[in-house]
Structures are given as structure tokens and as C-alpha cells.
Amino acid sequence: MKFYFTAVILLVVSVCIGQNVKGYYVTVNGTRTEGYYKPANFFNENNLYFSTSDTGTEYKKIDPALITEYGAGNDGVFKKYTVNLDDSKLMGTDVGNKKMPVWVSRTVFLNVVVSGEASLYSYLSDKGTKFFYEVADKNIGVNQLVYKQYMVDQSNIGENNQFRQQLFNDVNCDSSGVSKFANLKYNQSDLEKIFTRYNTCKGGKEGTTELKVSASQRAKFAFTVLAGVVNENITTTNPRYPGAKDNKVVFTGGLESSFTLPSEKISFFFKLLYQDMSSTSTVNYASTSRASTEIYTINASLVNAYLGPRYNFHIGKQHTVYANAAFRLFLPFGTSSHQHITTNDLGTVSYSDKVSLKEQFLYSLGVGYMFGGKYGIEVNYDAPTKLKGADLSTIKLNTVAVNLRYKLF
CB of 194 within 8 A of CB of 183? Predict the structure, then answer.
């Protein structure tokens, strides 16, 4: 059981890691190249691997010295600037006692948080996330918004909130009073609002990225109904008596919600399916002195809950073939029983035993086909379920399901 669970988790991690990221970069001579990045921390320009193929092969490392800009999916746009950067630690108990910034000149890649007449940038460093800004009509260049904590004495920490004055002076389109800036926090949420308001006031359109993501490249949620049939193969064994087998086809149905990543190759899904598990198997056997009957009965229904990744193979615009693996929670509702009946010269002896069925954690594998993104069919194989029944009986359930799919949205 632990092996199956670990295998599913590793599969989820591996497909997440394997997701290439659509993006671009611009060289120092102005050439723009479109393609795909290997998944990475895109705030670290020293660890970028790029391919012009979407197959996830032939990645080449990008030399930061040779580019001026790059964009990576929904992680945004990064532009190179030479700026004066405060080399102080932003906050904490070891910030030192200097109130004023310690300026150093650095060439860095800044993440575009808001672009427009006034642009906001962020820079991640080991000394904290620092923000920079630029205002087109003021010709002031790219400057850091100054904030830092410092030790006033051994027990008190002060704050240099110069960034509020900078914003009041330079990003104040409607001549708002000081009060609108007095309580600003040095975080992306508060700063974004100021720059968005300024750009709107100027009649421009602000954005959080310059990398345009089309509707087909956004992550998607979907809700799907399923109905189908399950072939149930139930085998009951008992250490003291002959076992029995029952094979039947039952109906199943349920719901699925899924989340598809922007590349549309990888999805994650959660599915609930209901099916009947009732069964009665009878075994008759005899010897020279007696006749016996074993009756194995299951009075139960069950819910299967599935959680896992799915890989989609797109064939043109209308056809998709997929394969998935899932962590499966098997939830039976009901009981199993075993009745033993023996008849001999002295009469008939009968006894029975009954126990409740318990949940299990297993795995499941499946393949499917979707047409037009709306209609589909899938085949699922569930790992065999072993349940302890009555009188030391063991119930083994093997199932293969065929489901029709209809995506609601």
C-alpha cells in the first residue's frame, strides 16, 4: 500500500517538474526568440534553460550577459537594468543601526509587476524583496523604493519609510493628500494598487506582465459527468471450506473535476464513482456421509474516490488521447457473510457469520479518448481489492470499467 501511494506521489511530482514553460528572451542586439523554458525559479537568471522545441528536449543554458529581457509563462517578464541598490537587509533582528540606505551599483533583472506610465518592479535577493519604480513623464530612471528597518537601540527597531514620500511625489496623479500614502505597507499588494490607480488616472492600461497569454494557454478547470459499466470479478476463499467465484457487470456513474495546466498536456483530476457490489455465490459439495453448502454473500455498494495526474496527447484540434494514474480510496458500505450448511444422518447443522467491510487505499490506471473537448470514453483498471470477510474468508475484487464522459464546462 505504501509503495502504491509513493508511486502516485512521485508520478505527480515528475509530471509537474516535466512541464515546459512557454516564453521568450531578447538579446542585446534586439533579437527576440520564442520557445520554451525548462521549469525553474525564474527570478534567478543564472539558471535558465531554453528550447525552441515544445518537446522538452535540446535545452540550452542562457547566458544572462547576452540578453536584456526574458518572459516565462505566468511567472512574468524580467528586464535588465543597472540601478542603485540598497545593500542593507530589509528587516529582522540583525538589520544593523544604519537608518539610511547603503547604495551599490548593480546590473540586475527586475520582475515587471505593473507596466504603464508608471511601472513597478520587484527584485528578490537574500536580503529581502525590494521594489523599484519608473515614471515615464518624469524622466527619473529606475529607482528603488526605499524601505528598511534599523536598530534604534538594543531593544527597539525603527523603520525608514522613505518609499511613501517617493510615491507621494512621483506617483500621485490626482494630487491625493498625504493620508493616502501614510499607511502604505512595503509589499506588492499595496504598491500595485498605487501604480494601477496612477496609470488609470493617466488614461493608460496597466498590466502585471508584458507576456501576453492567450486563452488557450491559461490553466483550465473542467467539470465532467461519467456513466458506464464495470466488470466485477469477485473471488472468495476460506481456509476451512471451498471458495467461490462470481462475475457480473454492473452500472456505475459519477462526477469528475479537473485542472489542466497552460500547456494542456498535464491535468490533475479528482473523481467520485458509485457502483453496486452485491453478490451471492453458492458452492455445493458432498462426501460419503454428508452434503455441505457454502453460501458467500456480499450486501454492499461502494464509492471510489480517485486523485491523480493525467497526460494528454493532442491529435489536431478535435482529438485527445490521455493516460492517467490515480491514488484510489475504496469506500464500501455494507457487510459480507458466510453461511455453512451440513446435512448428514443426524440432521442439518448450520451457522453463519457476518462482518462489515472496511475502506482501503489503492491505485488505479486508465486510458481515454476525448472528441471536441466535450465527449469521451475511458477504460479504467483498478488494483485488486482484498477484503477480510466472515469466518476468515478473504474477498478479492477485480474490476475493469468502461465509462462515457460528457464535459459540462
Answer: no
